[in-house]
Structure prediction request, 461 residues.
Amino acid sequence: MAATAAARTIIENCAIATVDANDTEYASGYVVVAGNRIESIGAGKAPEGLANVVRRIDGTGHLVTPGLVNTHHHFYQWITRGLATDHNLFNWLVALYPTWARIDEPMVTAAAQGSLAMMARGGVTTAMDHHYVFPQGSGDLSSAIIGAASDMGVRFTLARGSMDRSVKDGGLPPDFAVETLEGALAGTEATVDQHHDASFDAMTQVAVAPCSPFSVSTELLKQGAELARRKGVRLHTHGSETVEEEQFCKELFGMGPTDYFESTGWLGSDVWMAHCVHMNDSDIAAFARTGTGVAHCPSSNARLAAGIARVPDMLAAGVPVGLGVDGTASNESGELHTELRNALLINRLGAHREAALNARQALRLGTYGGAQVLGRADQIGSLEAGKLADLVMWKIDGLGHSTIADPVTAIVFGAAAPVTLSLVNGKPVVEDNHLITVDEDAIARSARAEAQRLARIVAQG
Prediction:
């Protein structure tokens, strides 16, 4: 018996930015999606006579791009937005860790739903969460986060974080908010075994992700790297975010962050790090030599006064770079599409000025660059035949964009563009700027209630 033909969706009459290796663009073109794959893409009208077409979309007035890929986030922070707004990173952490140490499974579920909804509504098709706070008795937080992403219908990487250096060991988190070395490793391995999917079209993957040099022991970094490579999964952590971190590493370990990470097995093509703001030429060369990736979080870096990452220099050296929202307690908007614009503008305040980044480089950071650092560049991040059908239709003929002639310039330099359609794995997640897989209003109510419950618990001591 012949196999049933995959259902096809056709989008045509739209501008297209493929973000492929040649930056191919079409002023007016089409995309044919068959099942969960991109079947064909090109200029003009879609081929005639295609069978099993279940939907044909007129994309007039739209730009189609790959779906955005978020490479660094902390979902739980959705319920602690707007706090410690005038602090640098270390003071911010000290102020908020006592609150974060009280989170539980219902809070994390609501926060994950809110974080995911905000990103997905703004064109994110692949999300990522670095969750490292596991208070004793708080429930199955990893499964709660993964369940929220599954319900939303987005592709997802959980970076299963951990901390074992508390206040009593010279770290920042409260004692009851950290795990033991053995508990962290066991919990991480169990999460990989239960949830990681290595297949081409995987919707859920897991990375090993001890939090940062100032909240984890050297042994956790070393054994975490060994665990990740034994399991065949990627590695993620925070690196070189602030001047204070560099001083901390030199005082405690006798070397800067990059050298310290290399000494613990944490440089390689299977590693990506968040921020990487304070890196010298030698650091950038080490990342380029080893293929270590970077999650650039411009809004968070500005919010916490961390500095300006040397993204143009990293790209010139060949370092894979993607974009990250970072936690919504340090980027209250919680959106990734605004990071395209912020990455471009903030980097132009640096040494390269107006030559730092252009619109197409910014779009690449948010799509193909993100796919690179998550290890999925052969599957997502560009619009090419055979790749997974994760794409976004941006409306650019309305008030905010109608007088910007170049479509890519419109979505990067202009106001945040409405999302008319977002497909993940070939299935709609957003239609006409609204999520269709979940109830946005219900998510808002739930997150508000959990934020208030958390505030009451903290106030009661």
In short: The longest strand covers residues 8-17. The chain has a mean pLDDT of 96. The CA atoms of residues 15 and 63 lie 5 Å apart. The radius of gyration is 21 Å.
